[in-house]
């Protein structure tokens, strides 16, 4: 019985991946160009401007931007499927749960961005040389950042009534959280009075943890603990909001 239930959930997740990633990648391969250019364009710009001195920071930033953008992209895709194809109504009336549906859609975003992630993995293997424990810590940061953006993207998607509105919110949030904050460069380059503004974004804490773990930024253990506390608190808070406030079933 349990095996059948697990198999059923896996099939439901696979359906989400096929609908939201494989179909589009197969039939419209040109859309993959955007997924590659988004994180790598900022990386290249930072490397050129810094004459290569910020390459490590830029690679870390590319990963963080990719993972955060994947979760936020979920907002636009869920909104499109909900409002234009009424898919959410069909899922609500089916045995599939909201968690299974969102899991499949979230994994589809990772698959959709796999070309960009593959390039970043190659760059990381060549230039970062992270030992296994530090590499796992970096992976934990990226996973947390992905979960944070999934919770935010899902909540906004359930309130969105139009795909144009969703894309506008998606672009705005991506800019505010993964482009303007010190993700591709150290926060020390920001004038001190403005550093407080950077700390309004959870991606700043994720970047600091990753940069410290990989040896690009020296932080005290207490600062690292505080960064983790803030990042995990924000993630948990967004998930609680998603569970309590998201409009999964229309009233």
What's the SSE blueprint?
Layout: H1 2-27, H2 32-49, H3 55-83, H4 87-92, H5 98-112, H6 114-127, H7 132-159, H8 163-179, H9 192-198, H10 202-213, H11 221-245
Helix pairs in contact: 1-5, 2-3, 2-6, 3-5, 3-6, 3-7, 3-8, 3-10, 7-10, 7-11, 10-11
Description of the structure:
The protein is an all-alpha fold. The chain has one domain. Helix content is 78%, strand content 0%. The protein has 11 helices and no strands. Helix 3 (55-83) runs antiparallel to helix 6. The longest helix is centred in the N-terminal third of the chain and has 29 residues, at 55-83. It is globular, with a radius of gyration of 19 Å. The model has no long low-confidence stretch (mean pLDDT 85).
Question: How many domains, in number, for the residues?
Answer: 1
Principal-axis shape: globular
**Low-pLDDT windows of residues:** none
Largest sheet geometry: none
Instruction: Assign a percent range to the helix content.
Output: over 70%
| Rg, Å, rounded | 19 Å
What structural keywords apply?
251 residues; mainly alpha
Please sum up the structure shown:
Helices cover 78% and strands 0% of the residues.
């Amino acid at each position: 019985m349990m095996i059948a239930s697990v198999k059923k959930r896996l099939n439901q997740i696979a359906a989400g991946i096929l609908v939201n990633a494989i179909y589009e990648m197969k039939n419209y391969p040109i859309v993959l160009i955007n997924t590659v250019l988004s994180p790598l364009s900022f990386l290249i710009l930072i490397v050129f401007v810094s004459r290569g001195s910020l390459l490590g920071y830029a690679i870390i930033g590319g990963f963080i931007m990719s993972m955060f953008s994947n979760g936020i992209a979920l907002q636009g895709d869920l909104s499109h499927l909900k409002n234009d194809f009424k898919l959410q109504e069909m899922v609500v009336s089916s045995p599939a749960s909201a968690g299974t549906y969102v899991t499949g859609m979230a994994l589809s975003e990772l698959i959709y961005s796999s070309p960009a992630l593959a390039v970043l993995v190659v760059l990381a293997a060549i230039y970062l040389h992270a030992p296994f424990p530090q590499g796992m810590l970096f992976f934990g940061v990226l996973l947390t950042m992905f979960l944070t953006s999934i919770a935010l993207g899902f909540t906004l998607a359930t309130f969105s009534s139009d795909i144009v509105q969703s894309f506008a919110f998606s672009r705005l949030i991506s800019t505010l959280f993964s482009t303007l904050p010190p993700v591709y460069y150290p926060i020390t380059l920001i004038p001190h009075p403005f550093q407080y503004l950077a700390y309004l974004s959870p991606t700043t804490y994720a970047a600091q943890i990753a940069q410290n773990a990989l040896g690009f930024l020296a932080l005290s253990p207490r600062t690292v603990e505080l960064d983790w506390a803030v990042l995990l608190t924000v993630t948990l808070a967004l998930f609680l909001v998603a569970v309590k406030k998201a409009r999964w079933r229309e009233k």
